[in-house]
Design a protein that fits this description.
The chain is of the alpha+beta class. The protein has one domain: VTC, catalytic tunnel domain (mRNA Triphosphatase Cet1, Chain A, Alpha-Beta Barrel). Helix content is 33%, strand content 35%. It contains 8 helices and 10 strands.
């Protein structure tokens, strides 16, 4: 993937729609008609995303999402590959929050070489890396403090394929379609563990991201296709799939989450 621009702070609205089968192809054609594919897409028009979510032993951030708190946030590692080693360049620590309808995201870029070498040491090493590498960074400082307070550790991983579009005439508007979404349990080093669980099979998550306004043509498309805005969290569905779906997954949660949060 080519070098990413240093966009480290985002404030925007995000609307999601779940589509199936032919509807995904229809909206893909419409997006291609009105927008340009993101410059970071491969020749097939997609790129891969991996998110490693942190949580407490009692799944505090998951419970806040499930309970529908209007003001909430979570931490995750974000990279743009499904590498077997878990992480690749570029790599970010992200704080993603919501205040009502407004979505807020702050990023800290991480040194992939140092991170890959030291990740086997677990969360305590990660805090030390942030302290050394990002002195004075408010997002890093907040993570360090809250990782001590809530005993944060890697919890679940989501992998998916993304098609993305941008609008040169309206840089504040962006559209994505996420498909082939899988959830993993994660080791305390933040690496995939166990067998992946497919979430939202045969579905695509269409998402528009905007700061001020939705283009008229997309409003028309929503009406014509009968699109219904939904609340859909990959993080929530991943936790439910790998830790809460059956008795064996609940045992994994009790054993692995408790162990992970000790490191």
């Amino acid at each position: 993937m080519p070098k990413l621009p240093e966009h480290l702070h985002f404030y925007r609205n995000e609307f999601k729609y779940i589509l199936h089968g032919e509807s995904i192809q229809v909206i893909t054609r419409e997006l291609d008609r009105h927008l340009s594919r993101d410059v970071y897409c491969r020749q097939d028009g997609h790129y891969d995303i991996r998110s490693v979510y942190f949580d407490s032993p009692g799944l505090r951030w998951f419970n806040e999402k499930r309970d529908g708190l209007k003001k909430r946030f979570k931490y995750r590692l974000r990279t743009y590959s499904h590498s077997e080693k878990g992480f690749d360049y570029p790599l970010f620590l992200e704080l993603k929050g919501r205040n009502g309808a407004l979505v807020i995201k702050h990023r800290v870029k991480l040194p992939i070489d140092q991170f890959s070498e030291g990740i086997k040491e677990g969360s305590s090493w990660f805090r030390e890396l942030l302290y050394r590498y990002s002195p004075g960074n408010k997002t890093a400082e907040r993570f360090i403090a809250q990782s001590f307070r809530y005993r944060l550790a890697p919890s679940v991983i989501t992998d998916y394929r993304r098609a993305a579009w941008e609008d040169s005439a309206n840089p504040d508007f962006r559209a994505t379609i996420d498909t082939e979404t899988a959830a993993w349990r994660t080791s305390w080093q933040g690496l995939p563990a166990g067998i992946p669980r497919e979430i939202l099979p045969c579905c695509g998550i269409v998402e528009i991201k905007f700061r001020y306004r939705i283009p008229f043509w997309f409003q028309r498309l929503v009406r014509e296709m009968g699109l219904v805005r939904v609340s859909c969290s990959k993080f929530q569905k991943a936790v439910e799939a790998v830790y809460l779906s059956d008795s064996s997954s609940r045992i994994n949660r009790m054993v692995e989450r408790s162990t992970a949060c000790l490191h």
